[in-house]
Write a structure and sequence with these properties.
alpha/beta; 4-stranded mixed beta sheet
Length: about 240
């Protein structure tokens, strides 16, 4: 707060310092990040000053009594500084702490288009938010399975008390197509685990692919399916 006050009116905590206060980041070095109006010249020991537009400075909040950039603005700023894995961790933490849901963050990026930091966030979030329609998903999965000589799977069928996306009964392979993983709640995560556990307990092979993988990385999906088929067939032969 002392650093914010020292930088004058309309100054706000930002970048790594704001991320640390929100709980989804850490300070970088010994300097405190403060954003100030573009026209202001401030040089103070221990403070890293960022001159910003009025629009950016209005994208602010107050947390623990300290003015700081909003969670979305903070993540956009941090995206220009963090490596991909660090950025993913920050987005996950922001979602977990209910600072901003990852799906809401993704939806908001159109309001910040062409700003630094938006591109790496899109690169991170686009694959995880991508959704196929049920018909597109089924069509693509049938094509993938056919290409590696798998039989046509049953779709939207009930297995071990759960509705599954794709099922090969003769192989005991269950495939679920997941959407955006970030915004799943604790109860959704628990149900997902229970589904997989029920299939494993029944001697089956539960697999999960994202919609993005099915659409844009079919080679990976086919590789995993081939491995699962080989293991399932080996198990069947071993059991006689």
């Amino acid at each position: 707060m002392a650093a914010v006050l020292a930088c004058g009116p309309n100054a706000v905590l930002s970048h790594g310092s704001a991320a640390a206060l929100w709980g989804f980041g850490t300070e970088r070095g010994d300097l405190i990040d403060i954003s100030v109006p573009a026209r202001r010249r401030s040089r103070l020991p221990g403070i890293r000053v960022h001159r910003r537009t009025e629009a950016i400075l209005r994208d602010a909040a107050v947390h623990e009594g300290i003015p700081l950039t909003s969670p979305i603005r903070t993540l956009i700023d941090q995206a220009t500084r963090l490596r991909p894995m660090q950025l993913e961790r920050a987005v996950n933490e922001a979602d977990k702490l209910d600072r901003v849901r990852a799906d809401a963050l993704h939806a908001s990026l159109n309001d910040y288009r062409n700003q630094p930091g938006v591109a790496p966030l899109r690169k991170l979030l686009d694959p995880l938010s991508f959704r196929l329609s049920d018909s597109e998903l089924e069509q693509l999965m049938r094509s993938l399975a056919g290409a590696i000589e798998l039989p046509v799977p049953e779709t939207k069928t009930w297995v071990n008390g759960y509705e599954v996306d794709f099922f090969w009964p003769e192989l005991g392979i269950v495939v679920e197509a997941d959407g955006l993983r970030y915004h799943r709640t604790a109860s959704q995560q628990r149900r997902g685990l229970e589904r997989d556990q029920a299939h494993l307990a029944a001697g089956m092979w539960p697999l999960r692919f994202s919609h993005w993988q099915i659409k844009y990385d079919p080679a990976h999906v086919q590789k995993i399916l081939r491995s699962a088929v080989a293991r399932a067939q080996a198990d069947a032969e071993r059991l006689g």
